[in-house]
């Protein structure tokens, strides 16, 4: 840095000491937490200005990447219409507009199922006769600094729309009710709700969730249209600070399913019929300490419950139970547990159950007829679309093979004779398929269009890295087809590794801008995720969390040794809990990376989890442990929390990206971390932080703003790796 170079902002040290379990922690920059302080806001703006100044020369590259994303994206497009209660619902986008337009058209009823359930052929950019616009995000966002559409729900008679919006990025939603016959909103407006409204079957009441002071969903309310909000009934309240409350409807929309749970166990109640004057019924008690999902179904004319649970079955077991739950000893297994396949989720329509599973590290969907379920007449499961992906040579320790595609459930209307499935791969733009349930016939309805891209120019393979403890870590390696493993390519390694979230195959237009410039992009599917079943998650949480970090480091070393990257041009990137991963590997093995990009990074984890009054902190105890009550957890977290472990060493180039109104990872975490890095780093390499002053956990709102964010990220990485062409 020359004398004329921009100088990084320096926040004064104002030490604050805290004591837990007899250990004193000193924090020089905790004062940056005061979001209302003009001094703090001025410092944040100075950080953003500094980042802009030192990366100003990257603007042409950012512009080029943004234009590449834009040129490859079909901006005027629409989703495949989905039928619900006599209407075809879809969303469409228009060139030059930031937000989707949600709309519907009337469906026909000829009595011929195939004709009635075949979606209308709509042409992007061509007006749809009879179209009724439900929500135009572009209109709703006018004059707002931020716009996010939360949940949407149409009443059973199709006349009303309940929807929630966030205009700050802090996930504090406002609930509105729209009269679809006039397009105007009713006077019923409810502030500070969560994003999941549900109409009762009579269409006269709406169920919504509110949160406590830590932004934990804790109460379900019932609002009768046209009455004061102050008179709303509290239907259900959850006082346990470690449980998240949620609710949704049964497949036939007649019952409300209420779940209070966390990552390890929960409790479920059913409100039959959502009838006024009645109360929910507990069907799975918390005393069972089971992680589960409940779906009411009709089996051979009798109301029953399908319960996907982990009682003596870490990878899941699907059972059939009485309508009121009953004794688990009487539940009838309908899909057994397996060490190789994880049962991930369940839904149903009038005739079939649909089970999301994870096989060979990626998602699939199984279908199971409800007729005869739980009896000797039960039909076998089937797995639509599984026969197509290549699954050979993918076992741990084998040679590299083609990465299988992910299959997911898109939708199935209750009375539909078909099911919608998605299929996607890292080099396959997402497809929407419709499968006729009675015959298995598969119809491709849509493949996401991509312009001016020859996908044969790229390759993707599955590799397996050896962790230090002998565990094999799956890797997804993407590159341009002419890039070979000769140790000369720039390498970007991406990771997450928390909450049992899996980094599944999925096509990314923006990522092509890296691959085109010769970058090898590798996803390290580290422990703490869910790629290899429940044990993969359990081995990367609480007192085993460090496996996540060492897996990423071991994966990076393996990739370099295998020739997939030039050891002098390796970068790492991750966001949120993946940002915690970035902070941890920066402390653990800074010599491996030339640059580290941390997006909304959870880098002051111990401070956050020690404060139950911070947003969502108490809920996090099931992920990380409770350092307030458990000294062992406290010491373990203190030994890896990135901010606590910044030391005098040569750190690489580091960029942190955050938003002022993020309620999931507060801006103060990267703000403090950046100060500590600058204070301790002996390398002289820049550490920068950008901050979106009108955004939340996902940054600024709008698709073009999202493309600009990706362009900033990738330009910074390419510049750091000396790969800018």
Q: How many beta-strand elements?
A: 39
Beta-strand level of the residues, as a percent range?
Answer: 25-35%
- Separation of the first and last Cα atoms: 24 Å
**Helix coverage percent:** 10-25%
The gist of it:
The chain has 725 residues and is an alpha+beta fold.
Structural commentary:
The protein is an alpha+beta fold. The strands form nine sheets. A nine-stranded mixed sheet has the order 27-32-33-35-34-36-37-38-39, sandwiched between helices. A hairpin with a 5-residue loop joins strand 32 and strand 33 (472-480). Helix 2 packs across helix 13 (703-720) and helix 7 packs across helix 8. The longest helix is centred in the last third of the chain and has 18 residues, at 703-720. The two termini are 24 Å apart.
Give structural attributes.
alpha+beta, globular, 5-stranded antiparallel sheet, 9-stranded mixed sheet, single chain, 725 residues
What is the strand and helix layout of this fold?
Layout (H helix, E strand, L loop, with lengths): L15 E5 L2 E5 L10 H17 L4 H14 L4 E2 L3 E3 L2 E7 L7 E6 L6 H4 L15 E5 H4 L7 E7 L5 E7 L6 E7 L4 E10 L4 E2 L5 E7 L5 E8 L8 E5 L6 E6 L6 E6 L4 E6 L9 E4 L7 E8 L2 E8 L7 E6 L9 E4 L6 E7 L3 E8 L2 E8 L31 E2 L3 E6 L6 E8 L2 E9 L5 E6 L10 E9 L5 E9 L10 E4 L17 H4 L4 E5 L9 H5 L7 H16 L8 E6 L1 H12 L6 E5 L5 H5 L11 H4 L6 H10 L12 E7 L8 H13 L6 E6 L10 H18 L5
């Amino acid at each position: 840095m020359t004398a004329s170079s921009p100088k990084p902002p320096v926040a004064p040290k104002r030490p604050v000491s805290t004591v837990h379990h007899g250990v004193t922690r000193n924090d020089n920059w905790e004062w940056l937490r005061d979001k209302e302080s003009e001094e703090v806001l001025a410092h944040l703006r100075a950080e953003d200005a500094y980042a802009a100044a030192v990366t100003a020369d990257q603007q042409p590259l950012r512009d080029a990447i943004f234009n590449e994303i834009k040129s490859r994206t079909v901006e005027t497009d629409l989703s495949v219409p989905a039928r619900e209660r006599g209407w075809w619902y879809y969303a469409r986008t228009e060139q030059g507009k930031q937000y989707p337009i949600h709309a519907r058209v009337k469906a026909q009823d000829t009595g011929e199922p195939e004709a009635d359930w075949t979606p209308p052929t709509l042409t992007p950019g061509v007006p749809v006769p009879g179209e009724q616009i439900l929500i135009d995000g572009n209109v709703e966002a006018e004059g707002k600094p931020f716009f996010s559409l939360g949940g949407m729900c149409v009443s059973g008679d199709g006349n009303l729309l309940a929807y929630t919006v966030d205009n700050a990025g802090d996930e504090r939603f406002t609930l509105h009710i729209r009269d679809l016959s006039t397009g105007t909103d009713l006077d019923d407006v409810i502030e500070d709700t969560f994003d999941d409204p549900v109409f009762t079957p009579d269409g006269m009441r709406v169920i919504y969730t509110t949160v406590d002071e830590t932004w934990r969903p804790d109460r379900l309310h019932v609002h009768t249209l046209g009455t004061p909000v102050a008179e709303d009934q509290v239907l259900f309240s959850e006082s346990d600070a470690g449980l998240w409350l949620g609710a949704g409807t049964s497949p036939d929309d007649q019952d409300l399913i209420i779940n209070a749970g966390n990552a390890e166990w929960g409790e479920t109640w059913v409100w039959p019929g959502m009838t006024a004057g009645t109360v929910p019924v507990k069907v799975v008690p918390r005393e069972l300490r089971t992680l589960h999902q409940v779906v009411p179904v009709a089996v051979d004319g009798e109301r029953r419950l399908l319960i996907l649970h982990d009682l003596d079955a870490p990878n899941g077991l699907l059972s059939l139970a009485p309508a009121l739950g009953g004794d688990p000893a009487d539940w009838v297994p309908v899909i057994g547990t397996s060490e190789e396949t994880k049962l991930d989720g369940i839904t149903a329509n009038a005739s079939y159950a649909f089970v999301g599973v994870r096989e060979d590290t990626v998602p699939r969907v199984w279908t199971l007829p409800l007729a005869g379920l739980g009896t000797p007449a039960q039909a076998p499961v089937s797995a639509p679309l599984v026969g197509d992906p290549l699954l050979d040579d993918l076992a741990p320790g084998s040679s590299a093979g083609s990465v299988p595609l992910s299959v997911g459930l898109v939708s199935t209307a209750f009375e539909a004779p078909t099911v919608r499935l998605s299929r996607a791969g890292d080099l396959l733009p997402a497809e929407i398929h419709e499968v006729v349930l009675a015959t298995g016939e598969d119809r491709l309805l849509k493949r996401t269009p991509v312009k001016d891209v020859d996908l044969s120019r790229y390759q993707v393979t599955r590799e397996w890295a050896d962790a230090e403890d002998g565990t094999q870590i799956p890797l997804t390696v993407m590159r341009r087809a002419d890039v070979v493993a000769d140790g000369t390519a720039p390498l970007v390694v991406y990771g997450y590794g928390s909450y049992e979230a899996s980094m599944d195959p999925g096509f990314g237009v923006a990522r092509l801008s890296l691959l085109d410039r010769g970058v090898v992009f590798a996803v390290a599917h580290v422990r703490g995720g869910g790629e290899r079943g429940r044990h993969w998650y359990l081995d990367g949480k609480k007192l085993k969390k460090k496996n996540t970090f060492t897996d990423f480091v071991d994966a990076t070393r393996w990739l370099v040794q295998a020739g997939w990257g030039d050891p002098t041009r390796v970068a790492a990137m991750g966001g949120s809990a993946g940002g915690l991963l970035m902070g941890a590997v920066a402390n653990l093995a800074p010599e491996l990376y030339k640059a580290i990009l941390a997006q909304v990074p959870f880098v002051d984890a111990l401070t956050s989890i020690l404060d139950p009054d911070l947003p969502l902190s108490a809920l996090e105890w099931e992920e990380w442990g409770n350092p307030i009550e458990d000294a062992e957890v406290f010491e373990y977290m203190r030994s890896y929390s990135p901010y606590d472990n910044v030391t005098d060493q040569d750190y690489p180039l580091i960029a942190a990206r955050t938003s002022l109104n993020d309620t999931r990872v507060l801006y103060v975490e990267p703000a403090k971390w950046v100060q500590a890095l600058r204070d301790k780093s002996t390398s002289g390499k820049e550490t920068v932080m950008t901050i979106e002053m009108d955004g939340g956990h996902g940054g600024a709102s709008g698709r073009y703003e999202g493309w600009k964010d990706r362009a900033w990220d990738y330009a910074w990485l390419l510049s750091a790796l000396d790969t800018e062409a």
